[in-house]
Amino acid sequence: MTSVxxxxxxxxxxxxxxxxxxYSVEYSFAMEYSGPPVSQDIPQVAxxxxxxxxxxxxxxxxxxxxNLSLPVVQPIVKKSDHQxxxxxxxxxxxxxxxxxxxxxxxHVGKIGLSGRVYSRKSGNCSYRNGKLAIEEGGDGESxxxxxxxxxxxxxxxxxxxxxxxxxxxxxxxxxxxxDDNLKAGVSYGDCSNATxxxxxxxxxxxxxxxxxxxxxxxxxxxxxxxxxxxxxEQTDHDGHEIIPERRLVLDDVKKGLCNRCCKKNRFAGKExxxxxxxxYCSKCVIKAMGxxxxxxxxxxxxxxxxxxSKRGSLGKxxxxxxxxxxxxxxxxxxxxxxxxxxxxxxxxxxxVNDKPLSIEELVMLQSCPNPPKKLRPGKYWYDxxxxxxxxxxxxxxxxxxxxxxxxxQIRQDASNGNTNVMINNREITKAxxxxxxxxxxxxxxxxxxxxxxxxxxxxxxxxxVMGKLWEKKRVRIVCAALSLPFPSDITNTGGEDIDNNSNKxxxxxxxxxxxxxxxxxxxxxxxxxxxxxxxRILYSVPFSEDEKxxxxxxxxxxxxxxxxxxxxxxxxxxxxxxIEMRRRNADEPGPSGSSDQVDKKNAYSFSPRLESFSSxxxxxxxxxxxxxxxxxxxxxxxxxxxxxxxxKAFQAIYKRRNELHLLPRVANYFLDRAVEISRxxxxxxxxxxxxxxxxxxxxxxASVDFSFPKSSQDGxxxxxxxxxxxxxYQLIRVxxxxxxxxxxxxxxxxxxxxxxxxxxxxxxxxxxEDINGIRTNKxxxxxxxxxxxxxxxxxxxxxxxxxLNKFDLxxxxxxxxxxTQCDWFHDFNPVISLHPHSATSSNNPPLAQRAFHYIAVxxxxxxxxxxxxxxxxxxxxxxxxxxxxxxxxxxxxxxxWSEERNTVSLNEWSTESMEPSTSA
Length: 920
Ligand SMILES: Nc1nc2c(ncn2[C@@H]2O[C@H](COP(=O)(O)OP(=O)(O)OP(=O)(O)O)[C@@H](O)[C@H]2O)c(=O)[nH]1
Ligand SMILES: [Mg+2]
What we know:
Blueprint: H1 2-8, H2 61-65, H3 81-93, H4 105-110, E1 123-128, E2 131-136, H5 178-183, H6 200-211, E3 220-221, H7 228-233, E4 249-250, E5 271-272, E6 279-280, H8 285-289, H9 319-325, H10 327-339, E7 350-352, E8 355-356, H11 359-367, E9 378-382, E10 388-391, E11 396-399, E12 422-423, E13 426-427, H12 430-438, E14 448-451, E15 456-459, E16 467-468, H13 473-481, H14 502-509, E17 516-522, H15 528-538, H16 545-587, H17 594-600, H18 608-622, H19 632-646, H20 648-655, H21 667-671, H22 674-678, H23 686-691, E18 701-706, E19 729-734, E20 754-760, E21 767-769, E22 775-777, H24 778-790, E23 799-805, H25 807-813, H26 847-867, E24 872-875, H27 881-899, H28 906-909
Parallel strand pairs: 7-9, 12-14, 17-19, 17-20, 20-23, 23-24
Antiparallel strand pairs: 1-2, 3-4, 5-6, 7-8, 9-10, 10-11, 12-13, 14-15, 15-16, 18-19, 21-22
Bound molecules: guanosine-5'-triphosphate (GTP) and magnesium ion (MG).
The site of magnesium ion (MG) has 3 residues, from loops.
């Protein structure tokens, strides 16, 4: 080695003259030093393309309004190449004056600065823990999710803008690394995997996605993507910057798949971008959304306006994201999502009486005592006199504060009414017309009313107030059922109707968008009010004290009615008994006068006291005055009921109650506790309320708002948002007598989502007589009403759920009375298998089950022949909570399927519906 080195090294000055041939050589080897060992790979950063630096948002509205002179960064406009250099120079020299990040060319070359340029304090980029972090100047406040206050004050860096996907910050490919990364302030570039070389596949995928030529379907494409130029230069009429909108065009990705990996994971849930609507699974969401300085947006969507249909979900993320990020981080992200500037309502897109709002007007509108709920970009009308507020061309949806200085004069056709009736210069809609009718206001002769904010109304030109709309409870109930607004601060005047759930309805009423409306109709005695009450009990919409008092009166009054029916039966039994005794005496003649003795002491004789009470009660019932004596009668006659109950003769009649055909089945439930119920201190239980006859509102319309609590029945197939108890439903029960001739009042329910039609399964052998004495089979009457309802133009596109009710009674009846009693069911001919191996319950279901199945198919065929659509059917026993719960949840499923029908075949999931092919 020495000789080799001697030959190549220059002659040393240290060479000794004495040892000419033998001098020693000192040498060392140099090796490339790559620094101290690090436990993990050092992330790479991609250079930023300064031509792609997006613009900053304008400062927060509040700041602009209050004239504070906080430093505000100006938007950076896209520049040509030579201009870019100039920009960099300016940035470098700007120092702390404009409080920019210190961006040098070197930084620009190495750091993936993208997204927006944010201003506040000077900040340095550095590596910390092997990862890129941002150290802010001044207070040294760490800058994790700086968007918690607002994006414009955020110092968060490193968001890939998405305009050029080659500019990405590094990221860890593992979700597990997330926490560390978040703590270190690192953000994630969409589909970038430059950190390590072991993610080649992902890198390729990423490239594919970028080029759009890969094996994966391109996820989303955007039309009309505005150039940076136009974005930064667009302003509203007040000169404020208009935040660009990004529109989604779903390309090849099927609904239900993750928009990044294109895989379906039904169980894990998805998170949705609030701008473009792309959905991401738990594996992709962080890669796709980064550190979310403006909330849940794909990185490419940062800086864009949110999709307004998602405004209601601002601040509400999926459980999947909560699981991934933890409470603290979620809190910050959601806070940023709600408060950051770009996510705020753009005032110039909100028109009131055809005039776009200014920022000041929007602020005024939002801060008035009764602001519009769920305000979205769009056109609204506003009646300044009454405070009525609605979407252009639609009926009012809310009453907001009156006399606000927004918008032009209201147009006569603002709500697209066609009734020739005017309120405050606006032609009102049908629903409002019905509301006026419910208030007893005559609308003949094209009247023009003035209605003020407190509901006072008067004729145009007249100077006296005719009344106040909101004082009439009936009006409020009709409003609730017709989705019309009414003020929530009206105190309950009570008395007129039992259902005074209206205040609650009203508050929900203002959230129409999120509400699913279920209309519940059926023939007399089909069980609609039982189902309605069951829903209130099931979903914890308690009966108020007022309601309970009313229900108590109804139950007690019914009790006296049942007793009267028994007493009436007594006369028949007594007469039968006397005839029988006389016949016996005639057969076995005894001493004269014995038959008289028998007559006086027969088993159904009352004491004179009870006799006179009996006559009194029967007289009351026959004269129709029973109602008038309640509730006062309770105190007076309660002891008589007790005495009656203890009487042997009464008990003898009671034992034969099954022979009393006028006595409703439900009477047994109350009569068994007659003494307790007749007492003054009786408190109806929930069961009593359920069983009580006739306790829905007098006008036949009752509505209740509820949401489904979680239950074990919520199958695995339900995604988290479907289980969301905040999704509210409204069940509107309408009595058939309220529908009018040819069901014309069904028009009132044009905004329902689903119609549930209830039929009593026991109707097949029952008849009613009309005033002309014509007998009609009740099942055929139910069929006729069903035909009228499903073919009603208002309900043409609605989903229908047939509730076949009173299955418990069918089980009993079908053994005694053949289904063929009804002409429509003449070919019901269940073949009962006698084969020993097929005699299992599945092959040989009970007769009632077969009958139910057959009836369901008959209705399905009928429905299909009328609408060419599919009818859903549910078997129900209205008095059983589970059964009603199942049916109502089935309604929920139907609505859900309807939403997803592009991807999910209804047949695949249908558990209770049956095709005609499965008929008996
Ligand atoms: N056994 C049994 N009885 C039921 C069932 N559903 C309802 N009923 C009873 O049937 C009767 C009529 O039910 P309602 O709920 O009042 O019927 P409706 O549709 O409101 O009819 P109207 O009373 O005419 O308004 C009541 O006595 C109920 O208790 C059921 O599934 N099984
Ligand atoms: Mg009823």
